[in-house]
């Protein structure tokens, strides 16, 4: 028997989940809307809002899962990577909570957890599989050989795919985070209206910083001729940008699958909520005979459910940490 409470606070979502014998029975996520006015996450504000949110979110999760504090067997938390001030709130809370209740502590790597979110619902992937992890801070192609034996075989050399979405959105005067909005407008536009080049990067790596700059120059040039270019063509611009990002992501994923001879393919992280990526992956799977794994929406963007499931597998291995554990803004994979 194991009932694990998990806390995620690496960026701007305060989330608490409960995992009861490998099943997620609560996954409460408090989003922070305060950052919308600033075009990106302001670390100081994020940390302050985590402090306001953490106690009510814990209470809500316990109530949703219908468990009392006394029934808990362990406390799992995101140790990193992420914003230090944000992580500090979750880590400090987890430590004091575990100390007060005399429970073991489990440290979880946020990027491992995005991948392990695939072990929440059925069908679960079998090992080895390849996971494309695409979030606001990371873009990684990972060969997953067991729950904790993972190897990054390709990654971005600069911006993450989520940043490519968010920074494009900023150019288009859309609020943060722009990824979901680009997705929404893209559904109404023509993906082939405008063409943006594919960066020529070696091996299985990515680069999105030049891509973002090319969009910026494209928009500036168009606006010289028509100051209303963005508002008159928003759907087509979003559809074309999304189409290009998805093409870049899937092209390297296809190369990785071929190189490693693996046909079980998963996507994870916030950008895996993107409808263009989900559709593109499904089409590629049909063409190449892949078995694909796409997480439920609530487990794509940051959530404690994924921390709880990662914590569960560590609990089975009795992989605990002590009270001297500290948050890590950069954490070894
Ligand atoms: O995994 P996540 O919630 O946080 C990080 O660990 O970074 O990912 C957040 C990123 C943001 O860049 C956001 O714009 C992007 O995921 N995102 C999307 C969509 N939903 C979230 N990007 C494109 N389309 C979406 N539907
Ligand atoms: Zn994340």
TrEMBL record:
Domain Gcp-like span(s) in chain numbering: 23-308
- Return the Pfam families for the record: TsaD
NCBIfam families the record matches: gcp_kae1, T6A_TsaD_YgjD
- Tell me which SUPFAM superfamilies the record gives: Actin-like ATPase domain
Record-linked InterPro entries: ATPase_NBD, Gcp-like_dom, KAE1/TsaD, Peptidase_M22_CS, TsaD
Give the record's GO biological process terms. Answer: tRNA threonylcarbamoyladenosine modification
Name of encoding gene? tsaD
Cofactors demanded by this protein: Fe(2+)
Cofactor note (record) = Binds 1 Fe(2+) ion per subunit.
The species is Pedobacter ginsengisoli
Q: Which HAMAP family match?
A: TsaD (MF_01445)
Q: Which residues form a coiled coil?
A: none
Could you give a GO molecular-function term held by this entry?
A: iron ion binding
Q: Which Gene3D superfamilies match?
A: 3.30.420.40
Gene Ontology cellular component list: cytoplasm
The UniProt function text for this chain reads: Required for the formation of a threonylcarbamoyl group on adenosine at position 37 (t(6)A37) in tRNAs that read codons beginning with adenine. Is involved in the transfer of the threonylcarbamoyl moiety of threonylcarbamoyl-AMP (TC-AMP) to the N6 group of A37, together with TsaE and TsaB. TsaD likely plays a direct catalytic role in this reaction.
The UniProt family comment states: Belongs to the KAE1 / TsaD family.
Name of the molecule in the record: tRNA N6-adenosine threonylcarbamoyltransferase
Record's catalysed reaction(s)? L-threonylcarbamoyladenylate + adenosine(37) in tRNA = N(6)-L-threonylcarbamoyladenosine(37) in tRNA + AMP + H(+)
Q: What is its EC number?
A: 2.3.1.234
Q: Where in the cell is it found?
A: Cytoplasm
First-tier enzyme category under EC: transferase
> Per UniProt, where does Fe cation bind?
110, 114, 302
Q: Which UniProt keywords apply?
A: Acyltransferase, Cytoplasm, Iron, Metal-binding, Transferase, tRNA processing
Annotated substrate binding lies at 133-137, 166, 179, 183, 274
